[in-house]
Amino acid sequence: MLPVDEQLIVITSGTMQIVPLDELKKKLEKGEPLNIKLGVDPTSPDLHLGHAVPLRKMRQFQDLGHQVTLIIGNGTALIGDPSGRDSTRPPLTEEQVEANAKTYVEQAVKVLDPQKTTIVHNGDWLKPLDLQKMLHLMAQFNVARILEREDFHNRYVGQQSIALHEFIYPVLQAYDSVVIDADVEMGGNDQIFNLLAGRDLMRAEGMEPQVALTMPLLVGLDGHKKMSKSYGNYVGLTDAPNDMYGKLMSIADEIVPMYFRLCSTLSIEEIDAIEAEFKAGKADPYARKRELARNIVDLYHGEGAGDAAQAAFDAQFKRAEIPDDVPEFAVADVVVTNDQGLVYLAKLMADLKLAASVGEARRFIDGGGVKINGEAVAAKSYNMAPELFVAGTVIQHGKRKFARLV
Description:
Elements: H1 4-12, E1 17-19, H2 21-29, E2 35-40, H3 49-63, E3 67-72, H4 94-108, E4 117-121, H5 123-126, H6 131-138, H7 143-146, H8 150-157, H9 164-180, E5 184-188, H10 192-204, E6 211-215, H11 241-248, H12 256-263, H13 268-279, H14 285-301, H15 305-318, E7 328-329, H16 331-334, E8 343-344, H17 345-351, H18 358-366, E9 370-372, E10 375-376, E11 383-384, E12 394-397, E13 401-405
């Protein structure tokens, strides 16, 4: 293993809090691999780059010679993490949780080294808990302490409902740390209360307490809100290479260093140099975004995928060419004329998956974002001559959505 000081340079890069740092140093000084814990509740089937931030830090721990334990929260997900919430999460069924858990693992191992990763499911020990054990765990916490956490405090003061089972969540997450004997638990910065609860419970059980390490919440593509599917500002780990590249090229210049720090595979020294370039006003943001996008696409789709996505991006945007991999639809299957012998373009766009609905397609047309064979369609042009829609016709919405008739 590297000397402790050198390990800490890597470990502290991009982190928000390490509580307490001196205990982490003492653990590292033992010269033995640490057990790094990350718990994820499979509340949805897809991960995005924001979810991958702690996974990237875990991979750095692995590269330093440490072992990581990824806990799939198929037990805790039945409650739902109240962190950062202003209302109770809607419950999930066990079937939904298990289906989501499968995709979580498949996506997580794109970042983590499978040979150094232990994957466990906390339902294996949480679901069999009997009343006596549950009462023992809950007795280690008090309501006043639970109400100190910001989200519960805000809901309590604002007279918003707090379901009793939500109080149990940090207790169960803390018990996970006891079961796997964690040395370090990682999470987003909104997880600090839950991570510290793990320290408290481990100490109460006579164990060496874990260190809490938090990572910042990744800012989404809009440059303001945290990355979230609900905000539509996310890059999914399963996004197609070209879509992933295109989304990353859209980020604001000022958050490029953050994305290198939290999402890329570059070394700490390389990232420090890039950050210094931006601070000194000497960076070429466009060139750096291209480098970032190639790196991240390679990470999730394999070496060479980034170069291919960049070539497709250049063909589509820099030279205004139509990409080679445009989805194709048979003319006879999708082109339908109405009573006037015209084609209702909005419905055709919905059938071609260029819009989620006819109403959305009409809004796209009115906004000037629709083209047929490269020519912009005028607002309110909903019904069009069928002669336009023959084999070879390309219909485009925005900069990334195409469909070709064949």
